[in-house]
Amino acid sequence: MASWIPLWLHKLGSPPTFYRFAGTLRPWMLALALLFGLIGLYGGLVLAPPDYQQGDAYRIIFIHVPSAWMSMFIYGVMGMAAFIALVWRIKLAEVVAMESAPIGAAFTFITLVTGSLWGKPMWGTWWTWDARLTSELVLLFLYLGVIGLYHAFEDRRQGARAAAFLAIIGIINVPIVHFSVNWWNTLHQGSTVNLFGPSSIVWAMLWPLLCMTLATKFYYAASLFRRVRTDLLALEGGKDWVRKIAESEA
Amino acid sequence: MTSPGLATACAAMLRRDLTLAWRRRGDIAMPVLYALIVTMLFPFALGPEDTLLQRIAGGVVLVTVLLAMLLALDAMFSSDIEDGSLEQLVLAPRPLALMLGMKILAHWITTALPLIVIAPLLAGMLHLPGAVMPVLLLALLLATPLLSLLGAVLVALTAGTRRSGMLLALMLLPLCVPAVIFAAGAVAAAQQGLPWLAPLAWLGAALALAVVLAPLACAAALRIALDA
Predict the structure, then answer these.
(1) A137 touches chain B (CB under 8 A)
(2) Would you say residue A1 has pLDDT above 60?
(3) Most buried among A89, A180, A185, B54, using CB within 10 Å?
(4) Is residue B113 part of a domain?
(5) Is residue B203 within 8 Å of residue B183, measured between CB atoms?
(6) Has residue B4 been placed in a domain?
(7) Chain B residues closer than 8 Å to A179 by CB
């Protein structure tokens, strides 16, 4: 019986264990992010052939699409952590949810900026009120709302719980917004990479894209670990294990 | 099956909030005045051409009503928090969600209903064709309770904070996008002589869902914000 798995998970939920765990894993995550990022960028910017229609301008896809995926992926992680935080009142889940929000907001912002840079040569405009662009903008506001609510409270844990609740409302809201905005107006192309069924993109362009996707995932993990570690130290300031760390590093 | 006690409590809650609002009638007039002023600014900013104003009338009225409601939302629980009666409500042996639902209803009657009453005037100022007016009113009747319900959840979340005005706007915006799209879509469709029932049906569906879920969410949010 693998009874050590639930035990290990329970232990991982305690701040000092997670602090050490994240500290050990973080350099590896960062290294993997750098490795995949460099390979992906080389593959995307140098090796991949130019597009028959968009020329070299399409190469922004290697930043734009992974960021867009991350903006949604991180919202999912945040929502799940928020749910765990509210139901089981686990402090670590609160921290993970709250520290995911700024990273997610940053990826959403990058998606919007690269999208508008790409839109200028392709569609002839920086911004258009297209369904996907609008949904992404709304997603940015959802992130900012969560961050704003978190910081509006004096008590950090109370703020984290309130913001976690808002994140869950947001998760219900995202598909509704996406659907209603789609009904309203659409110009953006459909997805070209499909998990199930054939993708309409050649392999030479696909593999750098996948590399970049992995790079952004690892970067998120590294960044999250660092933020969570800092936050845990601040939250648990008076505890024994923090004092020991502070003494050993002084 | 509801016990008579519950119905009495609901009625008492509603009567209390309406009485309180009636004693401060000036506050009820504020969102109405605000909506009038904002609507008046549009012809000044865009020029008094009938065709242009006619085309934007529906959307402007909807957004103006939304902003006026947003302005009034902040006050939904503030006086009850100050004098501690909200804590009493949380402790009361009645379902908190039901009591909050009554509060939301009272708030809708005192802020949104006056706005709906003057909506024809606002739309008239912008030359909205008379034939479209019933659709606009129907859209407002469905969209404003939806906004009150969603807004109540967010106001409850910010109940424990001091500065909440701008934050509330930031939080409400993503939630109200669908409501605005469907309400404005119905008005625009009616103006072009297209069928306008479908977007209104969507609004109605959303409202039905919100009536059931929002008071529950509001109660949960209030418990978090008051740390009860």
Answers:
(1) no
(2) no
(3) A180
(4) yes
(5) yes
(6) no
(7) 178
